[in-house]
Structure formats: structure tokens, C-alpha cells
Automatic annotation (TrEMBL):
Pfam families membership: FCD, GntR
PROSITE patterns the record matches: HTH_GNTR
SMART domains xrefs: FCD, HTH_GNTR
Organism this protein belongs to: Celeribacter ethanolicus
Name of protein: GntR family transcriptional regulator
InterPro entries (UniProt xref): GntR_C, TF_FadR/GntR_C, Tscrpt_reg_HTH_GntR, WH-like_DNA-bd_sf, WH_DNA-bd_sf
MF term (GO), any: DNA-binding transcription factor activity
Ranges of residues in domain HTH gntR-type: 17-84
Disulfide bond as UniProt keyword: no
Keywords: DNA-binding, Transcription, Transcription regulation
């Protein structure tokens, strides 16, 4: 009896709003980190028991995850962690590389001082997470850094497309960091700094070239890592 009371005291009931956020953030992180593998089932009843919440906030959290493409409801109404579309990965990389280049070019052309301050703030956060080997922090701050560059370019269609690509690619980026055992070489942090310098100088050609090189090394590293993954129970499901 005493142990049960202590357990309840350690885990006080969550309010509905905070409960939704807690479930969403926990599952999102587990999916991005590939702790919840592509194709694995999502069971509302089990989640309700796990988080000690009713099924209503669980469903609300799952709706948010579905909107981000992290979970999928099948025709039989079963819900699973979304598979990574490796069959169309080349198309994804082409689109991602194009967005790296066009948004960085536009930022070099159109940025204002407040844009540079925002970009540098996200770069500082990225550098710190790299130093701390905080993978989720690296993924989030890298995404924010490139979205800030897109915002500096001012084309809302590019901003929306690039944001969607970066969000969809979070698990792929997780593989990228895994290829370095989560110890990202400093040169890749420096690449961000070089891109900022080209943007500040309004050197459009230089900004474009640096963005292309940055995208290419990410793509090649991920492709090499996926090709080398020969584990019998690899989680890289199609």
C-alpha cells in the first residue's frame, strides 16, 4: 500500500492540456529517435494506461502526430508509426537540396538585420547542442536555423515547402547523426557559420555554393550509412 501511494505522489495527474502536450512530445521524440520503429503499432488503450490519461487526450496527441506525418492510420483503422519512404528517398533529397540552395540564395539577396540576428541565435543553439551531443536538440535547432534562413528570403511558398521537408526528414536526419555516433564533426558546425557569412555579405553565388556543398555532404553521408546498415533486424523499413 505504501509503495502505491508513493508512486502516485511521484506521478501526479496531468491536466488535459498539459497531458496532450506531454504525450505528443514524448511520442514525437521516441519516433524521431527511432525508439518507436517505423511500422510499429500505436495502441490507444496501451498509451492510456502508460500515461495514466483518458483516451481523449491520447487521441488529441495522435492527431498532432498524424498532422506531422509521424503516424499513419491504415484502411483497417489500425494506427502505426509512419514508414520512412526509402523508395522515393532520391526525390526527397532532390527537393531538399533545391530548398537549401534557393532559400540561402534569397536570404543573401533580401535579408534584413533582424533576420541575421535570428539565424545566428539558432546557429548558437545548434553549436551548443552539438557540443552536448544532444541529438534531439541538434535536429530541432538545425531545422529552426534553416527555416530562419528561408524566412530571411521572404518567399512564403519556399518557407512552407522547406519547413515541411525538414519536418518530414527528422528521422532521416537522426540517421545522419547516428552515422557519426552522435558526435558531429566541428566542420559541419563551421559550414553553418560560413553560410551566415555569405548571407551577410550578400554574396549570392557563394551562398548558393555553400548550401549545395552542405546539402550534398548530408545526402552522401546518409546514403552511405543506409547502404552500410546490414543488421538482420534493421529498423529501416520500407
Amino acid at each position: 500500500m505504501t509503495k502505491t501511494k508513493e508512486k502516485k505522489a511521484d506521478h501526479p495527474p496531468l491536466k488535459r492540456g498539459s497531458g496532450v502536450t506531454h504525450v505528443y512530445e514524448t511520442l514525437r521524440n521516441e519516433i524521431i529517435e527511432l525508439k518507436l520503429t517505423p511500422g510499429s503499432p500505436i495502441d490507444e488503450v496501451q498509451l492510456s494506461e502508460r500515461f495514466s490519461l483518458s483516451r481523449t487526450p491520447i487521441r488529441e496527441a495522435l492527431v498532432r502526430l498524424a498532422a506531422e506525418g509521424l503516424i499513419t492510420t491504415l484502411t483497417n483503422r489500425a494506427t502505426i508509426v509512419s514508414n520512412i519512404d526509402f523508395l522515393n528517398l532520391a526525390d526527397f533529397f532532390d527537393a531538399l537540396t533545391l530548398m537549401y540552395r534557393v532559400t540561402t540564395r534569397l536570404a543573401a539577396q533580401k535579408h534584413r538585420p533582424e533576420h541575421i540576428a535570428e539565424i545566428q541565435a539558432f546557429q548558437d543553439a545548434f553549436a551548443q547542442t552539438v557540443a552536448e551531443q544532444d541529438v534531439l536538440g541538434m535536429i530541432a535547432s538545425n531545422r529552426d536555423f534553416h527555416v530562419a534562413i528561408a524566412r530571411a528570403g521572404g518567399n512564403r511558398y519556399y518557407i512552407e515547402l522547406f519547413t515541411r521537408l525538414l519536418d518530414e526528414g527528422r528521422r532521416i536526419l537522426r540517421l545522419y547523426y547516428s552515422s557519426f555516433n552522435d558526435k558531429l564533426p566541428q566542420q559541419y558546425v563551421t559550414e553553418h557559420e560560413d553560410m551566415i557569412a555569405a548571407i551577410v555579405a550578400r554574396d549570392v553565388s557563394r551562398a548558393d555554393e555553400l548550401a549545395r556543398i552542405h546539402a550534398d555532404q548530408i545526402v552522401l553521408q546518409i546514403q552511405s550509412y543506409i547502404s552500410a546498415d546490414t543488421r538482420p533486424n534493421a529498423t529501416l523499413s520500407l
